[in-house]
Amino acid sequence: MTTPPTDLFGPWFVYPNVKSNSRSIIIVGAGPAGLFAALRCLELGLKPIVLERGLDVRARRRDLAAINKDQIVNPDSNYCFGEGGAGTYSDGKLYTRATKRGDVGRVLRRLVQHGATPDILVDAHPHIGTNKLPAVVQALREAIIEAGGEVRFESRMTDLLLENNRLRGVVLASGEVLEAEATILATGHSARDIYELLDRRGVLIEAKPFAMGVRVEHPQALIDQAQYRRTDRGLLPAASYSLVHQTEVQGRQRGVFSFCMCPGGFIVPAATAPGEVVVNGMSPSRRDSRFANSGIVAAVELEDLDVRQYGALAGLRFQQALEQRACQAAGGTQQAPAQLLGDFLKKKTSGQLLETSYQPGLVSLRMDDVLGPVLAERLRQGFQDFGRKIPGYATNAAQIVGVESRTSAPVRIPRDKDTLQHPVVQGLFPCGEGAGYAGGIVSAAMDGERCAEAVLAVLS
Length: 460
Hints:
The protein is α/β, with parallel strands linked by helices. It contains 13 helices and 19 strands. The protein has helices at 32-43, 60-70, 104-113, 133-146, 192-200, 220-228, 307-310, 314-329, 341-346, 367-371, 373-389, 432-435, 441-459; strands at residues 24-28, 47-51, 150-152, 157-162, 167-172, 177-179, 182-185, 206-207, 210-219, 244-249, 252-262, 266-269, 279-282, 291-300, 336-340, 362-364, 399-404, 411-412, 428-430. A 7-stranded mixed beta sheet has the order 10-11-14-9-17-15-16. A 5-stranded parallel beta sheet has the order 3-2-1-7-19. The longest helix is centred in the C-terminal third of the chain and has 19 residues, at 441-459. The radius of gyration is 22 Å and the shape is globular.
């Protein structure tokens, strides 16, 4: 640990050693919610035991290379699962509107203490970058271990120790049983097996709205020209955009909007199981790729889902069906279906696609056949409007790549608004994006801290 600074950013956080503390708290998931919950536990004198199904942040790289180059998906180690969570290798954006849910500055100072550039403390839209975030994540883990906490990798939770509506602990895939006074569940928005486990064990969960669509990829120079009126941007950063449009299809209004815009970035494969194709976006810290990409997604409401058949898992099943259809249509690998944007608007098959940042490769398809008529029409209306707002945007200079389906959790795990404890199962604290209470690195981190504080309040 480096010497605490004396500048205007305040002192470093100090973590008391809890190695001999018998009050252990299980934290399932080592994403931002889980890691920041663990750090807050240390400050509160509780011993965190962090369980992560995937590998440490460095070892994850082998599995990311496998999915990009060999198109092999490891269901426990990929762009979504592993130390640091989905944000580590998919951009590292730190901007959040959830300023009332916690202390944003506190989260950013923690990140700076563990290696992030101090620029994030003053930037309007702070961003660490996928190339730099792994070292920060590793430093967070080392701080937890140095203070007596535990971080266990390849430790996937497979069952719950439930007794009279109280959670006593968890069971791991290895068969090991861990008991604790409380469990913070911070598994992220793609841990489908956890939702299915909760549903199977009769733990109350709920279907919730989310959004789905595609990634659109442009030359970064086109976006620079549209936003700056010049392609030689000099010292200006790679240009970005934020777009939204209200659509109406079959009498239902739904918003279509840009999501996780990545200037100077790359499209990456974010599947978490074989037989599905999912895309996401990321940017390195310098944002110096020749490509710009953004999710363009349409809202999916409960009335769009088959809740009668699938109950709380209706949104999850909707996601799965689209991802599996995308995979089958593109040939059963991690190649992704794609179409030139101008051709998509004209409902015309693209004879040839553009160069792409997506390493597994693209397959030219009619995206209507992948997305289905309603979602495709919503996106078409959105793109038409965006083309009126940004010159050159909705043309064959761009292409759409499918599918962008992991914008947020399709399931909410309810909790009491005061205690943050599950309303039925005592000792269970749903947390972060996977529980439906966050939407990015910073908001998830703040929720992790709040859950740690809630655990202490309940146990006191």
